[in-house]
Amino acid sequence: MTTTEKLIQMVIAIALFIGVMAAILLLTQRLKSRRGERIQAVAFVGPALFLVAVGLLYPAVKTAYQSFFGANGENFVGIENYIDIFTNSGLLVVLRNTMLWVLLVPTLSTFIGLVYAVLVDRSRFEKLAKALVFLPMAISLVGASIIWKFVYEYKGTENTQIGLLNGVLKALGFDTYNFLFYSPWNTLFLIVILIWIQAGFAMTILSASIKAIPDDIVEAASLDGVSGLKMFFFITVPSIRPSLIVVLTTISIGTLKVFDIVQTSTGGRFDTSVLAYEYYFQYFVSLNQGLAAALAVVIFALVSPIIIYNVRQMRKLEAR
């Protein structure tokens, strides 16, 4: 099929869609009744539901079904793939790494963002300080990983260093260190990259929440002699609790799906793989479709409760 034929097909499809929608709208205008309103609702909601079913529900069901089959996707193996995930020594390392990511990244990112937001709040250089911390959010995860690869770059102590950290170590008289080689410390150094990025997101959301705290509450607390850490723990934190939960859960969802940093920095070597990267490796490199599908189901099972909880918290925020 030529490009011209494809273009003609696209134009015809758009024209048909517009024609059908116009016909439905015309029909509902004539049917000034509940039936007409229902037809109009179906006309607008139907295409979106269809796309959700085709783009999300069908792939999810297909993946769950495929997880009960072997590497070639043909031999039924039951729950063997799931047993492998929780018993295979290599995959247990993947689960350990994923747990470290999920525990450390949301917690430290939110803590750093919160402390920073409080420290720069209403200061003379607030805008500049916030812009500097938010800048990493404008960089892609791949770009950030490449930057930090130069920070962690390793060469023998006797060689000229191009890595920032090893350059500092050598200047101070210490031996250089291969930050991305030794497990489990290499995973912690990769985690630093995502914290560096997500701290800006946490700071932005929490700073807005802090500014939304009513002045009456702060003034009343000040008159009662509350200040410093007491003001932070007993006034600021309780007042922004819904925002804190939303930030924590949002970062947790992104962390569970982290792939770019691991792929760019280590390629999953040296025991740094996580669930999302392992899915990619099993499906596209090892060609083990069954195990890859099971890993995808595990990721979905871990993310779903967080998403549901996050949606409920966001609704509470909107209702306030």
Describe this structure in words.
The chain crosses the membrane at residues 6-27, 39-61, 99-119, 131-151, 188-210, 231-253, 291-311. Residues 95-308 form the ABC transmembrane type-1 domain. Its main location: membrane. Belongs to the binding-protein-dependent transport system permease family. Keywords: Cell membrane, Membrane, Transmembrane, Transmembrane helix, Transport. The chain is an all-alpha fold and 320 residues long. The protein folds into two domains: 3-49, no CATH class; 80-319, MetI-like (MetI-like fold). Helices cover 76% and strands 0% of the residues. The protein is built from 14 helices and no strands. It has helices spanning 3-30, 34-66, 80-87, 89-120, 126-134, 141-152, 164-171, 185-211, 215-223, 228-239, 241-256, 260-265, 275-285, 289-319. α1 crosses α2 (34-66), α3 (80-87) packs across α4 (89-120) and α3 (80-87) crosses α14 (289-319). The longest helix has 33 residues, at 34-66. The N and C termini lie far apart (55 Å).
